[in-house]
């Protein structure tokens, strides 16, 4: 394997899509470079494995006959490959260009999907974007936003984006899991999840916050405006545009003044509140519901108690494509069917 590297600073402003090319030449002469002084040695024991490099290894099955590959790029590939071998080599002063180069290396060399990619990215994000000990912390957050907002990032494959989301949440010490490309945030690893909440009638992937304590954790991290922006970008790239607030069981009034920062994420097109039982705080439920964005397309309310007047106002204020109401207990003696007849006449799907 041979490198053809250009000065990183000279090429900083070039388009990233044009910075990378892979060629595998059969029967290439090994004496073209000094094998006694390798710039990087790759093996399948690497922390992060790559399909392209593994294919080169698989061609070298004979001890007496070797095939070589040429990797051409315009940045210092050897340095970033070394990072994929040992995360302890990651520094805490990577710049925006270098972070992009790492993503490029993972993308174009086709990093093999496993938890080690998340581990590498978590170290990068943790060291460089959240816990800098100097005044540049916020600027580094903004740099991360710049990377995620770039056209380059939109072209990264889904699995790498999911790895970035995982490393981001790990850095914030948020417990989560992915199920069928849906993101579930929870407080206790032993919690059970109701996968039926992922409705086939809602054409988006879901962010499910599985209990009140998990909701508080999310609200806390979103107090940092940069974290909120980054979270929104990653959700959008993963097509997670449905928010589910589930299992809000509590017998005491929620403490503190909630800003409902989750609603500042503007990409949600579907909203679900289910299994709400906080009897001492009907006002908290009121705030949850009336704060829902008027631009949502799908609304689902399940297994909650609510006032007729507020439910009527909520439905009449939305231009819904789909409405799901199940096990709704109204405090007034009325039929749910009569809550808002004109709304039922305009939507496409009712359950």
3D architecture notes:
With 351 residues, the chain is of the alpha/beta class. It has a domain at 174-351. It has helices at 51-59, 77-85, 96-108, 115-130, 137-148, 151-154, 158-171, 212-221, 225-237, 282-290, 308-316, 341-344, and strands spanning 2-4, 20-25, 68-73, 175-179, 182-186, 205-209, 240-249, 270-277, 298-306, 322-330, 349-350. It has an 8-stranded mixed sheet. Strand 10 (322-330), helix 12 (341-344) and strand 11 form a beta-alpha-beta unit. Helix 4 (115-130) packs across helix 7 (158-171) and helix 5 (137-148) packs parallel to helix 9 (225-237). The chain starts with a strand and ends with a strand.
The largest pleated sheet is described as: 8 strands, mixed
Write down the overall mean pLDDT.
77
| Class inferred from helices and paired strands | alpha/beta
Low-confidence stretches: 1-27
Large-scale geometry: elongated
What order do the SSEs take from the amino end to the carboxyl end, as H and E?
EEHEHHHHHHEEEHHEEHEHEHE
Distance linking N and C termini: 60 Å
As a whole number of angstroms, the C-alpha radius of gyration is 25 Å
